[in-house]
Amino acid sequence: MDVLVFGAGSLGSLVGGLLARQHRVTLVGRDPHVGTVAAEGLTVDGAVECHVDPDGVTEVPPDASPDLALVTVKAYDTDAAAAALADCHPSTVLSLQNGLDNEARLADRLDCPVLAGTCTYGAMLEEPGRVTCTGVGEVVLGPREGGQSPAADRVGAAFDEVGIETTVAADMPHRSWEKLAVNAGINATTALARIENGAVLDEPASEVAAAAARETARAARDAGVDLSDEAAVDAVHEVAAATADNTSSMYQDVLAERRTEVDAINGAVAERIDAPVNRTLAGLLRAWERARDRR
Ligand SMILES: NC(=O)C1=CN([C@@H]2O[C@H](COP(=O)(O)OP(=O)(O)OC[C@H]3O[C@@H](n4cnc5c(N)ncnc54)[C@H](OP(=O)(O)O)[C@@H]3O)[C@@H](O)[C@H]2O)C=CC1
Ligand SMILES: CC(C)(CO)C(=O)C(=O)O
């Protein structure tokens, strides 16, 4: 399979690197990382290890026509990804991003099947040319509207072939909303309280996280997806326990003074329904982002 990874930072480099064990892969990202990959190859270390030689470029090549375009930019760069991919007419697109609506925004601009995905692998770009797998998890993917499709089966088989733990799912709307509830509960709470994921199991953080997850479940039901409050809160507890020592991606962003994905997570819930907890969490993170912009 000819795979183009748009947004070869931490996650894109890990998944692209693993796919490059069997497939022809082009990493589109930033220098000096992609230049180093082009010159010296990509090293994957940590929980999975390999050295591979994908192409590394800063723009989608003019002659590209990939079988699969993998979107791994942050949620706030999704529209730019869609614009860049529109010219190369990929046969299939898969988003592995966190946050709501990434797939819908890609589908608005692209004339091919857009698959939804969730990913619980952990990845960290340590230095140009080297990405660490900080935890083996699972990729779940399928048609964004639910059901089955030949495109989802083909991509699932390509991931399986290189040893990525993969499930092709017929209920992606439910799974995407459940992942959103986990991120809505854990990410902003940990970023604002400056705690590791495991601390979300204890009061008073647990009540904040559970309230954000329950509101997310209500927004899911409002959108026609059957996610109960109890299932959403259970998912937060399961993930917080399984990733107890993790610094959530939003807490990492705050520590590194980077923009967060709060608009696509808590902000997206508060945009859809009256959700005071998510609105407050989003407001506090946005206030921090504004102060950061002024510094
Ligand atoms: N890292 C992880 O373990 C996991 C991440 N995710 C999700 O995956 C997504 C990506 O996360 P992550 O990999 O950590 O993020 P990164 O910021 O590490 O990677 C995204 C990369 O894409 C680059 N990029 C953005 N726009 C362009 C462009 N127009 N052209 C070329 N390169 C571009 C960014 O560069 P620049 O910063 O310079 O713009 C950055 O290097 C997020 O939605 C995240 O929530 C999900 C599960 C696990
Ligand atoms: C699952 C979780 C909460 C793991 O840290 C995550 O997706 C994130 O940090 O963005």
From TrEMBL:
Keyword Manganese in annotation: no
Catalyzed reactions: (R)-pantoate + NADP(+) = 2-dehydropantoate + NADPH + H(+); (R)-pantoate + NAD(+) = 2-dehydropantoate + NADH + H(+)
Family: Belongs to the ketopantoate reductase family.
Domain Ketopantoate reductase C-terminal: 174-287
CC terms in the record's Gene Ontology section: cytoplasm
An example molecular function term from Gene Ontology annotations: 2-dehydropantoate 2-reductase activity
EC numbers, comma separated: 1.1.1.169
Domain of life: Archaea
Organism encoding this protein: Halorientalis regularis
Function: Catalyzes the NADPH-dependent reduction of ketopantoate into pantoic acid.
Protein name per Swiss-Prot or TrEMBL: 2-dehydropantoate 2-reductase
Keyword Lipid metabolism tagged: no
Annotated GO biological process: coenzyme A biosynthetic process; pantothenate biosynthetic process
Pfam families: ApbA, ApbA_C
Sequence ranges assigned to domain Ketopantoate reductase N-terminal in this UniProt record: 3-145
EC class (word): oxidoreductase
NCBIfam families, A to Z: apbA_panE (TIGR00745)
Keywords from the UniProt entry: Coenzyme A biosynthesis, NADP, Oxidoreductase
Pathway the protein takes part in: Cofactor biosynthesis; coenzyme A biosynthesis
